[in-house]
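Subject: DUF1275 domain-containing protein structure
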Amino acid sequence: MLIKKKKARSHAEDRYLALVLATAAGILNAMALGAFGFLPSHMSGNVSLIPSEVANSDTYGFLFLATLLIAFVMGGMLARMAVIAGQKIRTIFCLILLAEGVALTAVSLLQVLLYSTHSNSEVLITLGFLMGVHNSTSTQLSNGRVRSTHVTGTLTDAGIALGSFLSSFVSRDGSLDRRFFQKQLHTHLTTIFSFLTGCAVGLVLFDLFGFKAMLGVGAFLIIVAASAIAITVRTASKWTVVRRA
């Protein structure tokens, strides 16, 4: 699910991708809400808050929201640049996810050991950056079918897929592939359900374990990425042996 293949990706692979990355995004978002009262990947809401900060002449609030938006965009940009630079590396998406996991683990460890309310803004901006990386990675890998943090867009895609699926029963247009839209709808619903489930789990885990739970999310991403790299390398080695034989 984390490997960019020459053949077209199946919906099953995208659903597995959604289960892992959308759930992780939901957990991290909910933990940030529990810790700081703020959602680092809710860019629609954050943009909506900017005019309010301007109207109230809250310079700090405006700068914080603007920086958070820029951080999210920068995360997406750097993930895209990494994919382009490493397009010949089969495990490039695994490496990006591995780097994200390491960064999240480091941030969480600092919070566990040296938590201070004075650093809340910096931590949120860092999480916003990592959410940008996270969303960009899943979007690129799935060719736009899985946006792990962007629920608004996913709900829109689900509505479009549902409309196309229902229309296929009454339309004589042969271009409406009912089976295709059904699979697409299942993928979007899996993403939404995974994110919502992750949010519920994240709130419970943070309430029980605090920043140690966030540390666990970073470790989970590292394990998933490292496992995918190990499996890919082992499979490639086997194919090399077979060809030589």
